[in-house]
């Protein structure tokens, strides 16, 4: 279908973009992989769109002071194909390469994805496991939020009207860390039915560090500290993995839809968490 | 789609029962309510603007309260439609005293159809949970504020 009429602007720099957004009634176009289909179905009918696609300041990926700074308009393809991300934060590259299909990865952006806050999106699991931060900017100023505070609820981020995601900040990974993102994919949409992102380190035969992020299972992605605690200080054997992954769905109000009931999702979360833990542990050095 | 759960309101059972039937309080607590009018005994018509992410839909809904057994339970029947789809719901609300508070249990069946259901199937359940939670959070605030106001000299 054809969207309702809207005003379109395509600013070429950040200040211009922020000025256009300052009065708060415009919607940001950051790739449009969720927004444009909704507009074509006329479920969404924003009156003004500000396309951030030409704002060069928002695109780069750079390393600075032990962190990677990923511009919000970096596409999933930019991230999965970046040598810097592969070398310094492989979990994020692995998550990006699992998103949707080639077309979506070429257009969709990390900023657009996290601002939309879809409960089944791929990035949040990894960003939670990475303890990432989100730098937000507006005409009024800047603020930086940890990812768990940025993601407020299903389809709700902490962005206020007029604010945009400027960049996502992730720590540079130590070479000893093993990582894995395992996802049960819904074939039609490419979204995760459940997805588990894991970072682990071992030392002297013991797991010394574990971070586990889960997407798709609940209204918003979450970090499973229960699984982390159960795995840490164990030897990371197959039995230890099963025991830790078994608690991932405990006390979780699980999503339910046409593709997967709540019980099935809870079970699949255990299965995919175990797989991610096993692969991440096999990749530690 | 089945919906079910419970929420504890920090007021006695009679107050909770009454609050959940008070059109003025309901209008304040239902996210997006723009207008609520009584059209018959225990029957109301409301206009709602539902906003979920970038999706906005205007709905006109009829609400009927039936099978009243104060202060234990009543049945809520909702029928709504708008440009983006329609919904039909039937739910039972049960009020269980819990100390000075009241646990409100709800159990029901909601059918959603039209475009919003076709496109948003994946997110309907999650969205319903959020709307219900927001409703009870506001209800809780509304009832405690009203209670405080009433106890003032």
Brief overview, please?
The complex is a heterodimer of chains A (285) and B (153). Chain A has 285 residues and is an alpha+beta fold.
Describe this structure in words.
- With 285 residues, chain A is α+β, with helices and mostly antiparallel strands.
- Chain A has three domains: 7-50; 58-171, Uridine Diphospho-n-acetylenolpyruvylglucosamine Reductase, domain 3 (2-Layer Sandwich); 178-282, Enolase-like, domain 1 (2-Layer Sandwich), CATH 3.30.390.50.
- Helices cover 33% and strands 27% of the residues of chain A.
- Chain A has helices spanning 14-21, 35-40, 76-81, 83-88, 90-97, 102-107, 110-116, 123-129, 147-150, 225-231, 238-245, 262-282, and strands spanning 7-9, 27-29, 48-51, 61-64, 67-71, 133-138, 141-146, 151-153, 156-157, 164-171, 178-185, 192-203, 206-215, 222-223.
- In chain A, the strands form four sheets. Chain A has a five-stranded antiparallel sheet. Chain A has a four-stranded antiparallel sheet with strand order 11-12-13-14, with helices on both faces. In chain A, strands 1-3-2 form a three-stranded parallel sheet, with helices on one face.
- In chain A, helix 11 (238-245) packs antiparallel against helix 12.
- Chain B contains three helices and seven strands, in the order E-H-H-E-E-E-E-E-E-H.
- In chain B, strand 2 and strand 3 (43-52) form a beta hairpin.
- Chain B has a seven-stranded antiparallel sheet, covered by helices on one side.
- Chain B is globular, with a radius of gyration of 16 Å.
- Chain B has 153 residues and is α+β, with helices and mostly antiparallel strands.
- Chain B starts with a strand and ends with a helix.
- Chain B has one domain: Alpha-D-Glucose-1,6-Bisphosphate, Chain A, domain 4 (2-Layer Sandwich), CATH 3.30.530.
- In chain B, helix 2 (23-29) packs across helix 3 (115-151).
- The interface between A and B is medium-sized, with 30 and 21 residues.
């Amino acid at each position: 279908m054809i969207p309702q009429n809207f005003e379109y602007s395509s600013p070429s720099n950040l200040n211009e973009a922020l000025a256009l957004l300052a009065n708060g009634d415009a919607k940001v176009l950051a790739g449009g992989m969720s927004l444009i289909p909704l507009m074509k179905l006329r479920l969404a009918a924003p009156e003004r769109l500000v396309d951030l696609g030409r704002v060069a300041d928002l695109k780069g990926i750079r390393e600075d002071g032990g962190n990677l700074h990923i511009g919000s308009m970096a596409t999933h393809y930019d991230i999965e194909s970046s040598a810097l991300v592969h070398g310094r934060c492989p979990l994020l590259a692995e998550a990006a390469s699992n998103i949707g299909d080639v077309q979506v990865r070429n257009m969709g952006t990390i900023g657009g994805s996290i601002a939309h806050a879809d409960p089944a999106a791929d990035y949040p699991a990894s960003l939670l496991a990475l303890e990432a931060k989100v730098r937000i900017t507006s005409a009024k100023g800047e603020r930086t939020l940890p990812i768990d505070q940025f993601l407020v609820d299903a389809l709700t981020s902490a962005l206020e009207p007029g604010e945009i995601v400027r960049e996502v900040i992730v720590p540079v990974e130590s070479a000893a860390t093993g990582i894995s993102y395992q996802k049960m994919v819904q074939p039609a949409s490419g979204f995760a039915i459940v997805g588990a992102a894991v970072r682990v380190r071992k030392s002297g035969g013991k797991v010394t560090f574990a971070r586990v992020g889960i997407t798709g299972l609940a209204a918003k992605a979450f970090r499973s500290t229960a699984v982390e605690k159960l795995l840490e200080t164990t030897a990371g054997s197959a039995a230890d993995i099963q025991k830790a992954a078994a608690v991932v769905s405990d006390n979780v109000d699980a999503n339910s839809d046409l593709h997967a009931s709540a019980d099935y999702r809870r079970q699949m979360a255990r299965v995919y968490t175990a797989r991610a833990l096993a692969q991440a542990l096999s990749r530690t050095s | 789609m089945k919906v079910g759960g419970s929420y504890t309101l920090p007021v006695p059972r009679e107050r909770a029962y009454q609050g959940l039937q008070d059109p003025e309080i309901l209008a304040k607590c239902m996210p997006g309510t723009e207008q609520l009018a009584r059209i018959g005994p225990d029957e109301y018509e409301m206009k709602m603007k539902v906003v979920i992410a970038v999706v906005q839909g205007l709905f006109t809904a009829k609400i009927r309260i039936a099978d009243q057994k104060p202060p234990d339970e009543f049945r809520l029947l909702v029928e709504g439609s708008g440009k983006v789809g329609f919904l039909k719901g039937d739910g039972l609300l049960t009020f269980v005293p819990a100390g000075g508070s009241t646990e409100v249990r709800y159990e029901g069946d909601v059918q959603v159809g039209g475009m919003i259901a076709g496109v948003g199937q994946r997110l309907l359940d999650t969205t319903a949970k959020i709307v219900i939670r927001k409703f009870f959070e506001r209800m809780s605030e509304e009832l405690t504020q009203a209670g405080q106001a009433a106890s003032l000299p």
